[in-house]
Design a protein that fits this description.
about 35% helix; ligase; nine-stranded mixed β-sheet; cell cycle; UDP-N-acetylmuramoyl-L-alanine:D-glutamate ligase; Rossmann fold; 16 helices; UDP-N-acetylmuramoylalanine-D-glutamate ligase activity; six-stranded mixed β-sheet; Protein-Tyrosine Phosphatase, Chain A; alpha/beta; about 450 residues; Mur-like_cat_sf; 3 domains; cell wall biogenesis/degradation
Length: about 450
Protein backbone atom coordinates (compact mmCIF):
# COMPACT_ATOMS: atom_id res chain seq x y z
CA UNK A 1 0.00 0.00 0.00
CA UNK A 2 1.18 3.52 -0.79
CA UNK A 3 2.10 5.64 2.21
CA UNK A 4 -0.30 8.43 1.29
CA UNK A 5 -0.84 11.63 3.29
CA UNK A 6 -3.90 12.49 1.23
CA UNK A 7 -6.34 11.97 4.08
CA UNK A 8 -4.14 12.89 7.05
CA UNK A 9 -6.16 15.07 9.46
CA UNK A 10 -9.14 15.10 7.05
CA UNK A 11 -12.62 14.71 8.56
CA UNK A 12 -14.28 11.82 6.74
CA UNK A 13 -17.68 10.21 7.20
CA UNK A 14 -18.10 6.47 6.55
CA UNK A 15 -21.82 5.97 5.91
CA UNK A 16 -23.08 2.42 6.47
CA UNK A 17 -21.06 -0.49 7.73
CA UNK A 18 -21.12 -4.15 6.69
CA UNK A 19 -17.76 -5.48 5.50
CA UNK A 20 -16.95 -2.65 3.09
CA UNK A 21 -17.73 0.08 5.63
CA UNK A 22 -15.60 -1.53 8.32
CA UNK A 23 -12.71 -1.93 5.87
CA UNK A 24 -12.97 1.69 4.72
CA UNK A 25 -13.10 3.01 8.28
CA UNK A 26 -10.03 1.03 9.34
CA UNK A 27 -8.06 2.07 6.24
CA UNK A 28 -8.89 5.75 6.66
CA UNK A 29 -7.98 5.59 10.36
CA UNK A 30 -4.64 4.05 9.41
CA UNK A 31 -4.12 6.85 6.87
CA UNK A 32 -4.46 9.41 9.65
CA UNK A 33 -7.98 10.66 8.96
CA UNK A 34 -10.47 11.78 11.61
CA UNK A 35 -13.07 9.11 10.92
CA UNK A 36 -16.73 9.16 11.92
CA UNK A 37 -18.81 6.08 11.21
CA UNK A 38 -22.58 6.35 10.90
CA UNK A 39 -24.78 3.24 10.69
CA UNK A 40 -28.56 2.82 10.89
CA UNK A 41 -28.44 -0.16 13.30
CA UNK A 42 -28.56 0.32 17.05
CA UNK A 43 -25.19 0.05 18.76
CA UNK A 44 -26.39 -2.83 20.94
CA UNK A 45 -27.17 -4.84 17.77
CA UNK A 46 -24.09 -3.73 15.86
CA UNK A 47 -20.98 -5.79 16.52
CA UNK A 48 -18.97 -4.05 13.79
CA UNK A 49 -19.74 -0.60 15.23
CA UNK A 50 -18.78 -1.77 18.72
CA UNK A 51 -15.40 -3.01 17.46
CA UNK A 52 -14.67 0.27 15.68
CA UNK A 53 -15.64 2.22 18.79
CA UNK A 54 -13.23 0.15 20.86
CA UNK A 55 -10.50 0.89 18.28
CA UNK A 56 -10.92 4.61 18.91
CA UNK A 57 -13.11 5.54 15.94
CA UNK A 58 -16.10 7.83 16.44
CA UNK A 59 -19.33 5.88 15.90
CA UNK A 60 -22.88 7.21 15.56
CA UNK A 61 -25.65 4.62 15.24
CA UNK A 62 -29.44 4.20 15.22
CA UNK A 63 -30.26 6.29 12.13
CA UNK A 64 -28.68 8.88 9.84
CA UNK A 65 -29.14 12.33 11.51
CA UNK A 66 -29.03 15.14 8.96
CA UNK A 67 -27.24 17.52 11.32
CA UNK A 68 -24.28 15.16 11.21
CA UNK A 69 -23.24 16.90 7.98
CA UNK A 70 -22.70 20.14 9.90
CA UNK A 71 -19.44 18.62 11.24
CA UNK A 72 -17.48 19.79 8.19
CA UNK A 73 -16.66 16.51 6.46
CA UNK A 74 -14.47 16.75 3.37
CA UNK A 75 -15.51 13.33 2.05
CA UNK A 76 -18.16 10.62 2.46
CA UNK A 77 -17.35 6.95 1.83
CA UNK A 78 -20.72 5.28 1.54
CA UNK A 79 -21.85 1.68 1.67
CA UNK A 80 -22.74 0.73 -1.93
CA UNK A 81 -26.20 -0.46 -0.90
CA UNK A 82 -27.32 2.94 0.42
CA UNK A 83 -29.13 4.73 -2.43
CA UNK A 84 -28.36 8.32 -3.34
CA UNK A 85 -31.99 9.15 -2.52
CA UNK A 86 -31.16 8.70 1.17
CA UNK A 87 -31.81 12.12 2.81
CA UNK A 88 -28.32 12.43 4.25
CA UNK A 89 -26.77 11.81 0.82
CA UNK A 90 -29.17 14.23 -0.86
CA UNK A 91 -28.09 16.89 1.66
CA UNK A 92 -24.42 16.01 1.09
CA UNK A 93 -24.82 16.45 -2.65
CA UNK A 94 -26.41 19.89 -2.13
CA UNK A 95 -23.51 20.86 0.15
CA UNK A 96 -21.01 19.69 -2.49
CA UNK A 97 -19.41 16.99 -0.31
CA UNK A 98 -17.72 14.34 -2.52
CA UNK A 99 -19.19 10.83 -2.18
CA UNK A 100 -17.23 7.70 -3.07
CA UNK A 101 -17.43 3.97 -2.42
CA UNK A 102 -14.63 2.03 -0.74
CA UNK A 103 -13.28 0.52 -3.97
CA UNK A 104 -12.32 4.08 -5.02
CA UNK A 105 -10.57 4.61 -1.71
CA UNK A 106 -8.66 1.34 -2.16
CA UNK A 107 -7.60 2.30 -5.69
CA UNK A 108 -6.20 5.63 -4.50
CA UNK A 109 -3.71 3.95 -2.16
CA UNK A 110 -3.03 0.73 -4.07
CA UNK A 111 0.41 -0.25 -5.29
CA UNK A 112 -1.13 -3.15 -7.20
CA UNK A 113 -2.94 -2.78 -10.55
CA UNK A 114 -6.61 -3.71 -10.87
CA UNK A 115 -8.51 -6.06 -13.14
CA UNK A 116 -12.19 -5.07 -12.89
CA UNK A 117 -15.14 -7.30 -13.71
CA UNK A 118 -18.76 -6.20 -13.87
CA UNK A 119 -21.99 -7.25 -15.61
CA UNK A 120 -25.49 -8.40 -14.76
CA UNK A 121 -24.74 -12.12 -14.73
CA UNK A 122 -21.51 -14.10 -14.47
CA UNK A 123 -19.39 -11.59 -12.51
CA UNK A 124 -18.44 -13.89 -9.66
CA UNK A 125 -17.73 -16.92 -11.83
CA UNK A 126 -15.66 -14.91 -14.32
CA UNK A 127 -13.74 -13.20 -11.51
CA UNK A 128 -12.96 -16.55 -9.89
CA UNK A 129 -11.92 -18.09 -13.24
CA UNK A 130 -9.52 -15.20 -13.87
CA UNK A 131 -7.97 -15.52 -10.44
CA UNK A 132 -7.49 -19.27 -10.88
CA UNK A 133 -5.89 -18.82 -14.31
CA UNK A 134 -3.43 -16.20 -13.05
CA UNK A 135 -2.62 -18.41 -10.05
CA UNK A 136 -1.71 -21.21 -12.45
CA UNK A 137 0.56 -18.88 -14.41
CA UNK A 138 2.01 -16.84 -11.52
CA UNK A 139 1.26 -18.41 -8.11
CA UNK A 140 0.46 -16.06 -5.21
CA UNK A 141 0.00 -13.06 -7.49
CA UNK A 142 -3.76 -12.58 -7.96
CA UNK A 143 -5.88 -11.36 -5.05
CA UNK A 144 -9.69 -11.50 -5.08
CA UNK A 145 -11.37 -8.24 -4.11
CA UNK A 146 -14.61 -6.30 -4.28
CA UNK A 147 -18.17 -7.51 -4.47
CA UNK A 148 -17.03 -11.12 -4.31
CA UNK A 149 -16.75 -10.84 -0.53
CA UNK A 150 -13.29 -9.34 0.03
CA UNK A 151 -13.47 -5.53 0.46
CA UNK A 152 -10.78 -3.92 -1.67
CA UNK A 153 -9.88 -1.64 1.25
CA UNK A 154 -8.91 -4.75 3.22
CA UNK A 155 -7.04 -6.46 0.41
CA UNK A 156 -5.06 -3.41 -0.68
CA UNK A 157 -3.35 -3.07 2.71
CA UNK A 158 -1.23 -6.17 2.08
CA UNK A 159 -1.01 -5.93 -1.73
CA UNK A 160 2.27 -4.95 -3.38
CA UNK A 161 3.18 -3.85 -6.90
CA UNK A 162 3.79 -7.53 -7.69
CA UNK A 163 0.16 -8.41 -7.03
CA UNK A 164 -2.95 -7.80 -9.10
CA UNK A 165 -6.40 -7.21 -7.61
CA UNK A 166 -9.00 -9.23 -9.50
CA UNK A 167 -12.01 -7.18 -8.49
CA UNK A 168 -15.71 -7.90 -8.91
CA UNK A 169 -17.63 -4.62 -9.17
CA UNK A 170 -21.34 -3.98 -8.79
CA UNK A 171 -23.22 -1.10 -10.37
CA UNK A 172 -23.64 0.31 -6.84
CA UNK A 173 -19.87 0.39 -6.32
CA UNK A 174 -19.19 1.87 -9.74
CA UNK A 175 -21.50 4.83 -9.08
CA UNK A 176 -19.01 5.90 -6.41
CA UNK A 177 -15.75 5.90 -8.37
CA UNK A 178 -13.75 8.96 -9.37
CA UNK A 179 -10.14 8.10 -10.29
CA UNK A 180 -10.57 4.32 -10.40
CA UNK A 181 -8.95 2.88 -13.55
CA UNK A 182 -8.47 -0.85 -14.08
CA UNK A 183 -5.73 -1.83 -16.51
CA UNK A 184 -8.03 -4.60 -17.79
CA UNK A 185 -11.82 -4.47 -17.41
CA UNK A 186 -14.63 -6.86 -18.35
CA UNK A 187 -18.35 -6.31 -18.86
CA UNK A 188 -19.79 -9.82 -19.06
CA UNK A 189 -23.25 -8.68 -20.18
CA UNK A 190 -25.94 -6.13 -19.38
CA UNK A 191 -29.58 -7.04 -18.84
CA UNK A 192 -32.29 -5.30 -16.85
CA UNK A 193 -31.63 -5.38 -13.10
CA UNK A 194 -31.70 -3.26 -9.93
CA UNK A 195 -34.26 -0.84 -11.35
CA UNK A 196 -35.54 -0.29 -7.79
CA UNK A 197 -32.13 1.24 -6.96
CA UNK A 198 -31.24 3.00 -10.20
CA UNK A 199 -34.73 4.13 -11.21
CA UNK A 200 -34.39 3.26 -14.90
CA UNK A 201 -32.55 0.77 -17.06
CA UNK A 202 -30.69 3.67 -18.66
CA UNK A 203 -29.25 4.71 -15.29
CA UNK A 204 -28.29 1.09 -14.52
CA UNK A 205 -26.40 0.83 -17.83
CA UNK A 206 -24.68 4.17 -17.16
CA UNK A 207 -23.49 2.84 -13.81
CA UNK A 208 -22.03 -0.30 -15.37
CA UNK A 209 -20.37 1.68 -18.15
CA UNK A 210 -18.50 3.78 -15.58
CA UNK A 211 -15.99 0.92 -15.22
CA UNK A 212 -14.20 2.27 -18.30
CA UNK A 213 -14.56 6.01 -17.70
CA UNK A 214 -10.86 6.60 -16.94
CA UNK A 215 -9.41 3.95 -19.22
CA UNK A 216 -7.12 4.94 -22.10
CA UNK A 217 -5.74 3.23 -25.20
CA UNK A 218 -3.10 1.70 -22.93
CA UNK A 219 -5.86 -0.25 -21.13
CA UNK A 220 -8.00 -3.14 -22.37
CA UNK A 221 -11.80 -3.30 -22.18
CA UNK A 222 -13.32 -6.74 -22.78
CA UNK A 223 -16.91 -6.76 -24.03
CA UNK A 224 -19.60 -9.24 -25.08
CA UNK A 225 -19.96 -8.88 -28.86
CA UNK A 226 -23.29 -10.76 -28.80
CA UNK A 227 -25.02 -7.78 -27.18
CA UNK A 228 -25.72 -4.91 -29.63
CA UNK A 229 -25.97 -2.46 -26.74
CA UNK A 230 -22.34 -3.11 -25.76
CA UNK A 231 -21.23 -2.92 -29.38
CA UNK A 232 -22.79 0.53 -29.61
CA UNK A 233 -21.39 1.67 -26.27
CA UNK A 234 -17.89 0.55 -27.28
CA UNK A 235 -17.74 3.43 -29.76
CA UNK A 236 -17.59 5.90 -26.87
CA UNK A 237 -14.70 4.25 -25.00
CA UNK A 238 -11.06 5.35 -25.22
CA UNK A 239 -9.85 1.88 -24.20
CA UNK A 240 -8.53 -0.80 -26.56
CA UNK A 241 -11.41 -3.24 -27.11
CA UNK A 242 -11.14 -7.03 -27.03
CA UNK A 243 -14.32 -8.97 -27.83
CA UNK A 244 -15.75 -12.33 -26.89
CA UNK A 245 -18.63 -14.12 -28.59
CA UNK A 246 -20.39 -17.48 -28.74
CA UNK A 247 -22.01 -16.59 -32.08
CA UNK A 248 -19.31 -15.24 -34.37
CA UNK A 249 -15.58 -14.94 -34.97
CA UNK A 250 -14.31 -11.72 -33.38
CA UNK A 251 -11.05 -10.02 -32.52
CA UNK A 252 -10.61 -11.81 -29.23
CA UNK A 253 -12.18 -15.03 -27.91
CA UNK A 254 -14.97 -17.00 -29.56
CA UNK A 255 -16.58 -20.41 -29.87
CA UNK A 256 -15.73 -22.13 -33.15
CA UNK A 257 -16.60 -25.74 -33.98
CA UNK A 258 -16.86 -26.56 -30.28
CA UNK A 259 -13.49 -24.99 -29.44
CA UNK A 260 -12.79 -22.00 -27.21
CA UNK A 261 -10.57 -20.02 -29.54
CA UNK A 262 -8.55 -16.81 -29.25
CA UNK A 263 -7.60 -15.10 -32.52
CA UNK A 264 -7.30 -18.43 -34.37
CA UNK A 265 -5.52 -20.17 -31.45
CA UNK A 266 -7.52 -23.15 -30.26
CA UNK A 267 -7.36 -23.13 -26.46
CA UNK A 268 -9.60 -26.04 -25.45
CA UNK A 269 -12.83 -27.84 -26.30
CA UNK A 270 -15.89 -26.30 -24.69
CA UNK A 271 -16.87 -29.74 -23.39
CA UNK A 272 -13.67 -29.86 -21.35
CA UNK A 273 -14.72 -26.93 -19.17
CA UNK A 274 -15.00 -27.95 -15.54
CA UNK A 275 -18.50 -26.43 -15.28
CA UNK A 276 -21.46 -26.96 -17.64
CA UNK A 277 -23.79 -24.42 -19.24
CA UNK A 278 -23.74 -21.93 -22.10
CA UNK A 279 -23.30 -19.10 -19.61
CA UNK A 280 -20.07 -20.68 -18.40
CA UNK A 281 -18.80 -20.84 -21.99
CA UNK A 282 -19.35 -17.06 -22.11
CA UNK A 283 -17.66 -16.62 -18.74
CA UNK A 284 -14.70 -18.72 -19.87
CA UNK A 285 -14.32 -16.73 -23.10
CA UNK A 286 -14.25 -13.49 -21.10
CA UNK A 287 -11.66 -15.00 -18.76
CA UNK A 288 -9.56 -16.13 -21.71
CA UNK A 289 -9.54 -12.55 -23.05
CA UNK A 290 -8.21 -11.32 -19.72
CA UNK A 291 -5.63 -14.10 -19.54
CA UNK A 292 -4.28 -13.48 -23.03
CA UNK A 293 -4.04 -9.73 -22.40
CA UNK A 294 -2.25 -10.51 -19.13
CA UNK A 295 0.23 -12.73 -20.99
CA UNK A 296 -0.86 -16.16 -19.74
CA UNK A 297 0.13 -19.16 -21.90
CA UNK A 298 -2.54 -21.39 -23.45
CA UNK A 299 -1.65 -24.47 -21.42
CA UNK A 300 -2.14 -22.64 -18.12
CA UNK A 301 -5.51 -21.37 -19.34
CA UNK A 302 -6.62 -24.82 -20.45
CA UNK A 303 -5.50 -26.52 -17.24
CA UNK A 304 -7.18 -23.94 -15.03
CA UNK A 305 -10.50 -23.92 -16.85
CA UNK A 306 -10.70 -27.71 -17.07
CA UNK A 307 -10.17 -27.96 -13.32
CA UNK A 308 -12.53 -25.09 -12.46
CA UNK A 309 -15.41 -26.52 -10.42
CA UNK A 310 -17.48 -23.36 -10.06
CA UNK A 311 -18.22 -21.15 -7.09
CA UNK A 312 -20.79 -21.80 -4.39
CA UNK A 313 -24.41 -21.65 -5.60
CA UNK A 314 -23.46 -21.02 -9.26
CA UNK A 315 -23.78 -24.33 -11.13
CA UNK A 316 -21.63 -25.69 -8.32
CA UNK A 317 -20.77 -29.36 -8.68
CA UNK A 318 -21.66 -31.07 -5.38
CA UNK A 319 -20.70 -34.63 -6.24
CA UNK A 320 -21.86 -37.90 -7.78
CA UNK A 321 -23.99 -40.15 -5.59
CA UNK A 322 -25.13 -43.59 -6.73
CA UNK A 323 -24.29 -42.60 -10.29
CA UNK A 324 -26.29 -39.34 -10.12
CA UNK A 325 -24.50 -36.00 -10.53
CA UNK A 326 -25.72 -33.13 -8.34
CA UNK A 327 -25.36 -29.38 -9.01
CA UNK A 328 -26.33 -26.38 -6.89
CA UNK A 329 -27.33 -23.33 -8.93
CA UNK A 330 -29.30 -21.47 -6.24
CA UNK A 331 -27.95 -18.18 -7.64
CA UNK A 332 -30.32 -18.64 -10.61
CA UNK A 333 -32.81 -16.14 -9.19
CA UNK A 334 -34.39 -15.37 -12.56
CA UNK A 335 -35.54 -17.25 -15.64
CA UNK A 336 -32.58 -16.19 -17.81
CA UNK A 337 -30.02 -17.53 -15.34
CA UNK A 338 -31.87 -20.84 -15.01
CA UNK A 339 -32.18 -21.19 -18.78
CA UNK A 340 -28.43 -20.81 -19.19
CA UNK A 341 -27.69 -23.38 -16.49
CA UNK A 342 -30.14 -25.93 -17.87
CA UNK A 343 -28.63 -25.55 -21.36
CA UNK A 344 -25.56 -27.42 -20.13
CA UNK A 345 -27.50 -30.63 -19.45
CA UNK A 346 -29.50 -33.27 -21.31
CA UNK A 347 -33.18 -32.69 -20.46
CA UNK A 348 -34.01 -36.36 -20.80
CA UNK A 349 -31.65 -37.15 -17.92
CA UNK A 350 -32.30 -34.06 -15.81
CA UNK A 351 -34.29 -33.75 -12.59
CA UNK A 352 -34.78 -30.03 -11.92
CA UNK A 353 -35.70 -28.45 -8.58
CA UNK A 354 -37.22 -25.00 -9.16
CA UNK A 355 -39.55 -22.38 -7.74
CA UNK A 356 -39.50 -19.53 -5.27
CA UNK A 357 -40.69 -15.95 -4.90
CA UNK A 358 -43.54 -14.94 -7.20
CA UNK A 359 -42.62 -11.64 -8.88
CA UNK A 360 -45.78 -11.66 -10.95
CA UNK A 361 -44.20 -12.86 -14.20
CA UNK A 362 -45.43 -15.82 -16.24
CA UNK A 363 -43.13 -18.69 -17.17
CA UNK A 364 -44.10 -18.94 -20.84
CA UNK A 365 -40.53 -18.15 -21.93
CA UNK A 366 -39.30 -21.00 -19.73
CA UNK A 367 -41.35 -23.65 -21.56
CA UNK A 368 -38.90 -24.34 -24.44
CA UNK A 369 -36.04 -24.70 -21.93
CA UNK A 370 -37.75 -27.48 -19.94
CA UNK A 371 -39.34 -29.36 -22.86
CA UNK A 372 -39.33 -33.14 -22.44
CA UNK A 373 -37.39 -32.93 -19.19
CA UNK A 374 -37.29 -36.14 -17.17
CA UNK A 375 -38.74 -34.51 -14.05
CA UNK A 376 -39.28 -31.23 -12.28
CA UNK A 377 -39.78 -30.81 -8.54
CA UNK A 378 -41.45 -27.53 -7.60
CA UNK A 379 -41.69 -25.52 -4.38
CA UNK A 380 -42.30 -21.96 -3.23
CA UNK A 381 -44.88 -19.35 -4.25
CA UNK A 382 -44.44 -20.02 -7.98
CA UNK A 383 -44.95 -23.78 -7.93
CA UNK A 384 -48.45 -23.64 -9.46
CA UNK A 385 -47.31 -21.33 -12.28
CA UNK A 386 -44.30 -23.53 -12.95
CA UNK A 387 -46.48 -26.64 -12.82
CA UNK A 388 -48.64 -25.18 -15.60
CA UNK A 389 -45.54 -24.39 -17.70
CA UNK A 390 -44.12 -27.87 -17.07
CA UNK A 391 -47.32 -29.51 -18.30
CA UNK A 392 -47.17 -27.45 -21.51
CA UNK A 393 -43.51 -28.44 -21.90
CA UNK A 394 -44.45 -32.13 -21.63
CA UNK A 395 -42.17 -32.71 -18.65
CA UNK A 396 -42.47 -36.42 -17.94
CA UNK A 397 -42.89 -36.17 -14.15
CA UNK A 398 -44.02 -33.12 -12.17
CA UNK A 399 -44.03 -33.03 -8.36
CA UNK A 400 -45.03 -30.16 -6.05
CA UNK A 401 -43.66 -30.05 -2.50
CA UNK A 402 -43.56 -27.67 0.47
CA UNK A 403 -39.96 -27.88 1.68
CA UNK A 404 -36.42 -28.40 0.41
CA UNK A 405 -36.24 -31.62 2.42
CA UNK A 406 -39.20 -32.98 0.45
CA UNK A 407 -37.81 -31.61 -2.84
CA UNK A 408 -34.51 -33.42 -2.44
CA UNK A 409 -36.27 -36.64 -1.33
CA UNK A 410 -38.46 -36.60 -4.46
CA UNK A 411 -35.54 -35.77 -6.75
CA UNK A 412 -33.43 -38.57 -5.31
CA UNK A 413 -36.34 -41.00 -5.70
CA UNK A 414 -36.81 -40.09 -9.37
CA UNK A 415 -33.16 -39.88 -10.49
CA UNK A 416 -31.36 -42.99 -11.72
CA UNK A 417 -27.80 -43.79 -12.82
CA UNK A 418 -26.33 -41.19 -15.25
CA UNK A 419 -29.05 -38.66 -14.42
CA UNK A 420 -28.41 -35.20 -12.97
CA UNK A 421 -30.18 -33.40 -10.14
CA UNK A 422 -30.00 -29.62 -10.56
CA UNK A 423 -31.26 -26.92 -8.21
CA UNK A 424 -31.82 -23.93 -10.50
CA UNK A 425 -34.90 -22.17 -9.14
CA UNK A 426 -35.53 -19.48 -11.81
CA UNK A 427 -36.92 -17.43 -8.90
CA UNK A 428 -35.71 -15.35 -5.98
CA UNK A 429 -35.51 -17.02 -2.58
CA UNK A 430 -37.23 -14.51 -0.31
CA UNK A 431 -40.54 -16.37 0.03
CA UNK A 432 -38.77 -19.12 2.02
CA UNK A 433 -35.21 -17.94 2.72
CA UNK A 434 -33.34 -14.74 3.62
CA UNK A 435 -31.13 -15.13 0.52
CA UNK A 436 -30.12 -17.53 -2.25
CA UNK A 437 -27.05 -18.66 -0.29
CA UNK A 438 -29.20 -20.03 2.54
CA UNK A 439 -31.39 -21.83 0.00
CA UNK A 440 -28.38 -23.38 -1.70
CA UNK A 441 -26.79 -24.38 1.57
CA UNK A 442 -29.96 -26.17 2.68
CA UNK A 443 -30.08 -28.02 -0.65
CA UNK A 444 -26.47 -29.17 -0.26
CA UNK A 445 -27.09 -30.16 3.37
CA UNK A 446 -30.13 -32.22 2.38
CA UNK A 447 -28.24 -33.96 -0.42
CA UNK A 448 -25.50 -34.82 2.07
CA UNK A 449 -27.98 -36.09 4.66
CA UNK A 450 -30.08 -38.13 2.26
CA UNK A 451 -27.56 -39.63 -0.15
CA UNK A 452 -24.10 -38.32 0.65
CA UNK A 453 -23.22 -40.57 3.56
Amino acid sequence: MKQSKRYTNEKILVLGLARSGVAAAKLLYELGAFVTVNDAKKLSENKEAQELLEAGITVITDGHPLDLLDEGFSLIVKNPGIPYTNPILEKAIKKGIPIITEVELAYQVSEAPFIGITGTNGKTTTTTMIKQIIDSYQPNTALLAGNIGFPASDVVVEATKDNVLVTELSSFQLMGIDEFKPHIAVITNIYEAHIDYHGTREEYVKAKWRIQKNMTKEDTLILNADLPELVELSKSSQAAITWFSTNEKVTGAYLEDGWLTYNDEKIMKSGDLGVPGSHNVENALAAICVAKNYGVDNESIKTSLSLFSGVPHRTEYIGTFNGVKVYNDSKATNILAAKKAISGFNNEQLVLIAGGLDRGNSFDEFIPTIENMKAIVLLGETKEKLQKAAKQALVKEIVCVETMTEAVAEAVKIASTDDTILLSPACASWDMYPNFETRGTEFVDEITKQVGK
